[in-house]
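re: ur question from yesterday

yeah so i grabbed the chain u mentioned. its 179 aa long if i counted rite. heres the sequnce exactly as i have it in my notes:
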Amino acid sequence: MKKDSIEKFLEKIKKLEKSSKLDLSSDEDLSVAVMNLISIEEHLFFSYGKTKNGEFLKYLDEVREMRKEMMKKLVKRKEGEVWCITKHLLSASMRLFEVGTKYLSRGEKGKAREFFEKSYNLYSLFWGINLGFVEVPEGKKESEKEIRFISKDLKKKESISIFEKLGEIVKRAVDCCRE
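ran it thru and got these structure tokens back, copy pasting raw so excuse formatting
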């Protein structure tokens, strides 16, 4: 994987999709479902906090178990750091998206665009990790926990941020319009 170019990797994805071994469209839908399950967990937590009604905690636990089950279908690497990072990337992406839609509904398109871009950047980082373009080392030292960009093809373009690089990968690899 590390030695392959992005084009070769995308060719592999296309071959796998044709042989029905990989369906990124379904995975994209599942990632949005996981985002919403995380949001439901948050709402149940706040509902409990406001009402102190223990039923909300029961529902929270049930939704959490469902979210974990769905994440297992989506997140290929299940080590602690990768699992947790990807969960929080989806959660933050969803929250930034929601803030962006609120600004958009108020007619503040510039502010909305800023939040949408940040949301998409986090979503792209999620896919970068899950498609193997971004490595999250499992070290104890702070320097070993850095997220490192693997792709040599895109690494050559020094003026482009990691989020722009990952955004390009996601645009090419994850196409929800393919049926």
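noticed a couple things. The mean pLDDT is 78. also Strands lie at 134-135, 148-149.
anyway ttyl
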